[in-house]
Write a structure and sequence with these properties.
By secondary structure, this protein is α/β, with parallel strands linked by helices. 50% of the residues lie in helices and 9% in strands. α27 links the parallel β11 and β12. α2 crosses α18 and α6 packs antiparallel against α7.
Length: 703
C-alpha cells in the first residue's frame, strides 16, 4: 500500500522522508474518506468491488474536486464580500429573510471567515517574501521593481477587487491554490477567465500600463504556474489516470446569456501565450457556435497544428441542450465552462462532482452473456459479479440480449450509486469545502456548504467506458447469431469464453469485415446509441445524497486500458485483456472512411442525455495538416461537425516516427505533450501501454 518507489514519474525521497511518509500513511488510513466510510457503514464487499475496479472506479474516494467556481466574483468583488456577508450572518444570527441560523449554518459562516483569514495570511506571507527578495535584489532595478509590485499585489488581492490584469490573475491563482489545498488536486478549473479579466485588460491597455505583448507574457506566466499542480498517484492508480494529468481547465470564447458572441482579445491572447510555452497544463477549451469569429477559430487551429493536443473544441448548441435537460436554466447553461477534461457546468453555480466514477460498460455485456458471471479464466471461482440474468440458452431474440444487458447496467449503477452516497455522507460530516462554497452561488445565501447541497445546481456525474466496443458487439451478435444464424448464441458465447481459441478467422472477420461505428453506418451508429441510452437512463434514475441529479458522460481517462485488462473477449473480435474503446471514439483501427466517417457517426448520436459531455479523439499525421492547406482542411472538418450537432472534439497532431523514437530513447525527447483522453500529458510520463495506444491510434489524412 505504501510503496514509495515508482518507475514512472519517480519521487526523489531520502530514507528519512520515506519513513515520515510511511507514518503519515498509516495514520491516514483511519482518517481518510475511504477509511471513515468503511468504518461508518461496514460494507467491505462494496469497497472490494471498488478497489478491484471491475464494474466501476469511484474517484470520489480521493476527493470530489472537479469544479469551476465563480472566479468573476473573486476578480470583481474580492473575498471581502463573502467575508462581510458571513460576518453579518453571524452577528444577526439569521439569513437575509430573517430565518434563524441553525448550528450547522452558524458553523458554515464561521468556516468561511476562518478560511478567508487563512487565504489573506497566505497572500501576506507571499508579500513578505517578495519584499525580502526585493531588498536583497542588487542585480537590476527592473527585477527589484517587479518584486515590489508583486508584494503590493498580494497585499491587495484576493481580499479586495482586482484593479489590473496582473492583480486579477494573482487573485485567481491564490484562490486556486486554496482550492487545491482544500480538496483533491484534480479538475479544479478556472472557467471563463477571458471574460472575468477582460475589463481589467481593457483598462490596462487604455491607461498605457500594458501592451498586448506584455499581457501575453502575464498569461504565459499564469499558465506556467498551473504546471506546478500535480497529484501523486500510485502505480496501480496510474493505469486509470496515466500521466498525472491535472486538467485545470480554461474555457475561451462562447456566448453571453442571450446567445451573443463574447469572444475577445484575451481569448486569443491565452492561445498565443500557450503557443509559446507548450506545456501539459492548463487544459485549454474553445467554445464553438455559429457566431464564433473566424480569426479566433483560425488561431485555435494554428495552436492545434503545433502538436500538443490543445485546445479541445465544444459545440455550444449540443452542450447547452444537454445542460438544459439536466435542469439548468438556459441563461446559466449558456454560461457553461469546461471542468477538467471535458466535463461541463454553469460556472460558479454548480456543484458537479463531475468525475464521480467511471463505469465499465463493456463488462456489463460480458455479464449479460454469462448469467452475471465473468468469463472463465477471468473469474475462476465462478461467483457472480453482476445480477442473475438468464442463461443464453433461454435468450431467443436479440431483444433478450439487450434486456439482459440493461439489467446488468442497472444493477452495477445501483451498487455504484450506493457507495457514492456513502462517500458523500462522509464528505458532509468530515470534509466540507468552504473555499469552494464561498465562490459557488447559493451557498453564502443559504448558509450551506456545497457538500450539504448549498449550490444553485447539484449534480453527480458518471462516465461510460467502452461504448464503441459495446455498440459494435451488439451489431456483431445481431448479425452473426440472430440475422444470419451462423451460430446459436450458446455456441457463440462458448467461443468468447475461449478467447477465440481455434477461431482466429472468425475473430478477424468480426474485427475487420463487419460494419463498425465510426464509418457513418446508420445501423452500427444506432446500436452505439442504444448502448449509450441504456447507460444514461440507468444513471439518471438516481438522485444523489444532496437531492441533486445524476447525469452521464462518455469519456474514459485511461480507464479503457485498466478496465480492458479485466474484461473478457467481446463479440466484435476484441480479445480478452485488450484495451477498450476510448471515450466516444471508435475502436482503434476500424475507421475505414477517414475523419469524415468518424465525425459523421459521432454527430449522428443524440448527445442530449450527456450533461457531462463526451471525449472524441482524432489523430492526424503531422505531415498532412501543416501550413495553410492543413489549417483550412481542419477548419472545414470542425465547421461541418459542429454544424451537424457535434458536442466535443479533440485533436492530436503527431509524428508516429518521433513517438516511437521517444519511447525508445526518452531522454532525447523530454518535452513532447500529447492528448491522452480529455487531458494532456508529457509522453514520457505515460505508462508503456498508453504510449503504445497513442502511437497505434489511426492517423488520418484530412480527407
Amino acid at each position: 500500500i505504501f510503496r514509495l518507489e515508482r518507475r514512472r514519474i519517480p519521487l526523489k525521497l531520502t530514507t528519512g522522508e520515506k519513513w515520515r511518509l510511511l507514518g503519515v500513511g498509516l495514520r491516514y488510513i483511519r482518517s481518510s474518506i475511504g477509511g471513515k466510510t468503511l468504518l461508518r457503514f461496514g460494507r467491505i464487499s462494496h469497497f472490494l468491488d471498488f478497489f478491484r475496479a471491475k464494474r466501476y472506479f469511484i474517484t470520489e474516494e480521493a476527493g470530489i474536486a472537479h469544479q469551476v467556481g465563480g472566479y468573476w466574483n473573486v476578480v470583481r468583488l474580492g473575498l471581502r464580500r463573502a467575508d462581510e456577508m458571513a460576518e453579518q450572518r453571524i452577528k444577526t444570527g439569521a439569513l437575509s429573510d430573517g430565518t434563524h441560523l441553525t448550528p450547522d449554518q452558524l458553523a458554515f459562516y464561521r468556516s468561511i471567515r476562518i478560511t478567508i483569514a487563512g487565504i489573506r495570511q497566505m497572500a501576506a506571507n507571499l508579500a513578505d517574501e517578495a519584499e525580502r527578495l526585493a531588498a536583497e535584489e542588487t542585480t537590476t532595478a527592473e527585477r527589484r521593481a517587479e518584486l515590489q509590485g508583486l508584494a503590493a499585489t498580494c497585499r491587495h488581492v484576493p481580499y479586495e477587487p482586482a484593479r489590473t490584469l496582473q492583480e486579477g490573475l494573482q487573485a485567481c491563482w491564490l484562490v486556486h491554490i486554496a482550492l487545491n489545498l482544500e480538496d483533491f488536486e484534480q479538475g479544479l478549473s478556472f472557467g471563463r477567465i477571458d471574460q472575468a479579466l477582460y475589463h481589467l485588460y481593457l483598462r490596462d491597455i487604455e491607461s498605457g500600463r500594458l501592451t498586448p505583448e506584455k499581457a501575453a507574457e502575464l498569461l504565459a506566466s499564469f499558465e506556467l504556474k498551473a504546471c506546478e499542480t500535480m497529484p501523486l498517484y500510485s502505480e496501480r492508480i496510474d493505469q486509470f489516470f496515466s500521466g498525472n494529468g491535472v486538467a485545470q481547465g480554461i474555457t475561451l470564447g462562447g456566448t453571453d446569456a442571450e446567445g451573443n458572441d463574447v469572444t475577445n482579445e484575451l481569448s486569443g491572447l491565452f492561445l498565443d501565450a500557450y503557443a509559446q510555452i507548450r506545456t501539459r497544463e492548463p487544459s485549454l477549451h474553445v467554445r464553438v457556435h455559429k457566431g464564433s469569429p473566424a480569426w479566433f477559430l483560425e488561431k485555435a487551429v494554428q495552436v492545434v497544428q503545433l502538436g500538443c493536443g490543445k485546445p479541445s473544441f465544444f459545440g455550444d448548441s449540443a452542450v447547452v441542450q444537454a445542460l438544459e435537460q439536466a435542469g439548468i436554466a438556459t441563461a446559466h447553461a449558456r454560461d457553461y465552462a469546461v471542468i477538467g477534461c471535458v466535463e461541463m457546468g454553469s460556472q460558479g453555480r454548480t456543484y458537479n462532482s463531475s468525475d464521480a466514477a467511471l463505469f465499465n460498460l463493456a463488462l456489463c455485456l460480458e455479464l449479460a452473456l454469462n448469467r452475471g458471471r465473468r468469463f472463465m479464466g477471468w473469474n475462476l471461482t465462478g461467483r457472480r459479479t453482476g445480477a442473475a440474468t438468464p442463461p443464453v440458452s433461454e435468450m431467443r431474440t436479440f431483444e433478450d440480449v439487450v434486456e439482459a444487458f440493461r439489467v446488468q447496467v442497472c444493477d452495477a449503477v445501483d451498487e455504484m450509486a450506493k457507495v457514492i452516497g456513502w462517500l458523500e455522507e462522509v464528505y458532509r460530516i468530515w470534509r466540507p469545502t468552504p473555499v469552494n462554497s464561498m465562490i459557488t452561488e447559493g451557498c453564502l445565501e443559504s448558509g450551506r456548504d456545497v457538500t450539504w447541497g448549498g449550490a444553485l445546481y447539484d449534480l453527480t456525474s458518471i462516465q461510460a467506458v467502452g461504448l464503441a466496443d459495446v455498440g459494435d458487439s451488439l451489431y456483431a451478435l445481431k448479425k452473426v447469431v440472430f440475422d444470419d444464424h451462423r451460430f446459436t448464441l450458446d455456441e457463440f458465447v462458448r467461443i468468447l469464453k475461449s478467447n477465440f481459441r481455434g477461431h482466429e478467422p472468425l475473430r478477424a472477420e468480426l474485427a475487420n469485415r463487419l460494419p463498425r461505428y465510426g464509418n457513418g453506418n446508420a445501423e452500427a451508429d444506432r446500436l452505439v446509441q442504444l448502448a449509450a441510452d441504456v447507460f444514461s437512463d440507468a444513471v439518471k434514475s438516481h438522485v444523489n445524497s444532496r437531492g441533486g441529479r445524476y447525469v452521464s458522460g462518455i469519456y474514459s481517462m485511461t480507464c479503457h486500458l485498466g478496465f480492458g485488462r479485466i474484461t473478457g473477449a467481446m463479440p466484435n473480435g476484441r480479445p480478452a485483456g485488450w484495451r477498450l474503446s476510448n471515450g466516444l471514439s471508435p475502436v482503434d483501427g476500424v475507421e475505414r472512411r477517414g475523419p469524415t466517417g468518424v465525425l459523421r457517426s459521432a454527430a449522428a448520436l443524440d448527445s442530449s442525455k450527456w450533461a457531462n459531455c463526451c471525449a472524441l479523439n482524432l489523430k492526424f499525421d503531422k505531415k498532412v495538416v501543416q501550413g495553410i492547406g492543413g489549417q483550412r482542411a481542419m477548419r472545414s472538418l470542425l465547421d461541418t461537425y459542429f454544424d451537424q450537432g457535434g458536442m466535443q472534439l479533440q485533436v492530436n497532431v503527431l509524428d508516429g516516427e518521433v513517438l516511437r523514437a521517444a519511447k525508445a530513447n526518452p531522454a532525447a525527447y523530454p518535452g513532447i505533450v500529447v492528448r491522452v483522453a480529455g487531458y494532456c500529458a508529457y509522453f514520457n510520463d505515460l505508462q508503456s501501454a498508453v504510449q503504445d495506444e497513442i502511437i497505434e491510434r489511426t492517423a488520418h489524412t484530412t480527407g
